[in-house]
Fold this sequence. Notes:
Shape: globular
Helix content: 25-40%
Largest sheet: 4 strands, antiparallel
Oligomer: single chain
Strand content: 15-25%
Structural class: alpha+beta
Strand order of the largest sheet: 1-2-4-3
Amino acid sequence: MSFARSSWNTGAALEAGGGGVAGGMDRGMACAELPLDDAVFISFCRRGRKRLREMQETFGVTLRLDRQQLVLRVIGPASNVQAVSKHVATLSGPRRSVPV
C-alpha cells in the first residue's frame, strides 16, 4: 500500500485559509485521505462497517469511506490520525504462509 496520495492538513494550515471539514477544525486536529487496496476497500464495504466503528471508538477519530475515490478519510487529533494510518497499513501487504 502506498501512501503517496495521502494528504495531511493540520488545524494551523486550515486556519491560514485552507479548506476544512464543516467550516474548519480546531488546532491540533488533522485530516488525511488514505488510499486503500482493493482487498481492504472491499472488506470495509461489506462487513467492515463494524470494523470502521471499532476503529473510530478505539482511536478517537472520525472515519469516512469514499467509495468513488477508494480512500478512507480520517479526521481527528494528529497523533490519532497517524495511528490509524499505521493500522490501515497493517491490514494489507504480504501475509505469512501457513504450512499444511
